[in-house]
């Protein structure tokens, strides 16, 4: 059975904050918080998570000085909904941003507003995915928001100014401007800096000096790259998130110049699919390398300035990403690579190089930030502060199941996927796709089948398990107050 404990917020946070402080070299004042969030960065592109595809020495360095969460998941794996969940601590059906086509309003309080009220200096540099119109963004002391998709000489909207181009590469600019803001902060008060990199999101534009470096790299394909079941088997799922689909995305952007992808004319079928995969991985990994270098630049700055002694640094991404698994790119699905977010928290005074296996969620982040700052957590937030795990990564009574719900299937979506929801426990995942007349279920045994290639839903052997999971799923939907398409046939 699953266990969900409503966060007791300030009480536990303050106590744990105190206990963490005691662990430190000296009593901490309210810590500064730097929240680095990249866009679509898969754990399979981080060496601290065991990836052999790329070395990320600086993100690994952050993990060595803090705690790496091995099982952090997104509750609706797509940009705007996840970012709205991270701001509000609520599921999509509560905050209302169910798809990328919905703008958030001001009905739900966000953690930056609460931190600001509590005396924190606040800034967001990078990507919001929903502009600057909300109270959340307007409340900030400073913002510099990436405008459009360009990586080179990108446009930014800066607080109090017109949209303008900034010379350079987007990931470098975001870090430099963030550091610049920190330097100007009033040092008698704590700050919260959101460094939200637009990379490595499509269009995956490389830094010029890396084009040639990565052009010579070759990447092994993942075991499920040629998975027939998910690409053309009996599964009634739509999918244009294939390698060929990715190529079409790239080809239609004529203005991308030397960053555009041009497949050789003579390639087709499997050969073309493999070519696109290599091109994709080279571009994606080149973007990740620059993020990693910028994490290093930031950590060096904190060390040199002495701010490292009182600054919590968090690294995450707004969701996971397929790197060729099932032959796919993108996210959206409730499958592992899509929902799996990196999450590393470096907390001064905390023992370094720790791993936490507990299941944590994107909706847990705002409560964690508020808890770190000693700010009262609103009772209607739906996550849990992670501070208790920072002092005890094996804490008893943590959640052992998560709820997921994906919605974006409107005709305007570039990559529509049937709506679905489901439950993931430590071992099993039950998914229900529902769309118009479709009612299609999947069950995976993650212990035996980590790539989710064998649907066991109709297996006699798992009948009892399906029943149990459906019961848990109904309870989770009640717990989170999700009343959309509520009927589950038993
Ligand atoms: Ca994203």
Sheet-strand content, in percent, reads 15-25%
Any ligands, ions or cofactors bound here, and which? calcium ion
Q: What is the mean predicted local confidence, pLDDT?
A: 90
Q: Tally of extended strands? A: 15
Overall 3D geometry? globular
Model description:
This protein has 490 residues and is an alpha/beta fold. It folds into 2 domains: 2-203 and 283-392, Alkaline Phosphatase, subunit A; 403-479, Arylsulfatase, C-terminal domain (2-Layer Sandwich), CATH 3.30.1120.10. Helices cover 32% and strands 18% of the residues. It contains 15 helices and 15 strands. Strands 1, 2, 3, 4, 5, 6, 7, 8, 9, 10 and 11 form an 11-stranded mixed β-sheet that branches. The protein has a 4-stranded antiparallel β-sheet with strand order 12-13-14-15, covered by helices on one side. Strand 4 and strand 5 (155-158) form a beta hairpin. Helix 8 (208-215) crosses helix 11 (269-305) and helix 10 crosses helix 11 (269-305). It starts with 8 loop residues before the first helix and ends in an 11-residue tail after the last helix. 50% of the residues are buried. Residues 1-19 and 21-26 have low confidence and may be disordered. The structure holds calcium ion (CA). Calcium ion binds at residues 39-40, 79, 201, 318-319.
